[in-house]
C-alpha cells in the first residue's frame, strides 16, 4: 500500500504547514483577555507589509488593545489558541458601541501632535479653502 492521500482535502492538509503564534503575542493576548473578565473580541486588520493588526475589544469594559503579527494565518492561530477570544468579522455598530477608550488613549494615539501649541499650515489649504475669482469680475 502507498501513503498517498485518497482525496484532495487530505492532500491539502498534508501540504499545509502548521502555523504557530509567537509566545510573546500569546502571553499578551491571554493577559488582556484575563483582565477583561475572560472574554474579548478580535478584529483582524491587514496593514500591508507590516502584517496583520489584531485589535482586541474587552467584553466587560470595552478596553482596546492590539498586537501585530506577520500574517493572517498567524492571527487566526492566535484566536484559535486563546480561550475566550472570538473573532469579530468586522467593525460593526454593535462592536463599536462597546468600545470605551481609556483616559489618555486619544493623546497616545496622536503621538507628537498631542502636546503641540502650534501646528504647521495644512498642505491641502488650497483644496479646502480655494480662492475663487470669477474672471468676468476683473
Q: Which strand order do you get reading across the main beta sheet?
A: 3-2-1-4
- As a percent range, the share of helical residues equals 25-40%
Strand content: 15-25%
Shape, per Cα inertia axes: globular
Nutshell version of this structure?
The protein is of the alpha+beta class and 138 residues long. Helix content is 34%, strand content 17%.
What does this structure look like?
- It is built from six helices and four strands.
- By secondary structure, it is of the alpha+beta class.
- Strands 3-2-1-4 form a four-stranded mixed β-sheet, with helices on one face.
- The longest helix is centred in the N-terminal third of the chain and has 13 residues, at 23-35.
- The protein is globular, with a radius of gyration of 23 Å.
- The mean pLDDT is 81.
Amino acid at each position: 500500500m502507498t501513503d498517498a492521500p485518497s482525496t484532495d482535502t487530505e492532500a491539502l492538509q498534508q501540504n499545509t504547514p502548521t502555523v504557530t503564534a509567537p509566545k510573546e503575542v500569546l502571553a499578551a493576548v491571554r493577559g488582556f483577555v484575563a483582565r477583561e473578565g475572560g472574554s474579548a473580541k478580535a478584529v483582524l486588520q491587514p496593514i500591508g507589509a507590516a502584517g496583520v493588526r489584531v485589535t482586541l475589544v474587552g467584553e466587560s469594559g470595552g478596553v482596546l488593545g492590539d498586537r501585530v503579527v506577520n500574517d493572517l494565518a498567524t492571527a487566526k492561530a492566535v484566536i484559535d489558541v486563546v480561550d475566550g477570544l472570538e473573532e469579530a468579522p468586522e467593525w460593526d455598530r454593535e462592536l463599536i458601541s462597546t468600545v470605551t477608550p481609556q483616559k489618555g488613549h486619544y493623546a497616545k494615539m496622536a503621538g507628537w501632535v498631542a502636546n503641540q501649541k502650534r501646528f504647521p499650515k495644512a498642505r491641502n489649504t488650497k483644496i479646502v479653502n480655494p480662492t475663487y475669482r470669477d474672471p468676468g469680475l476683473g
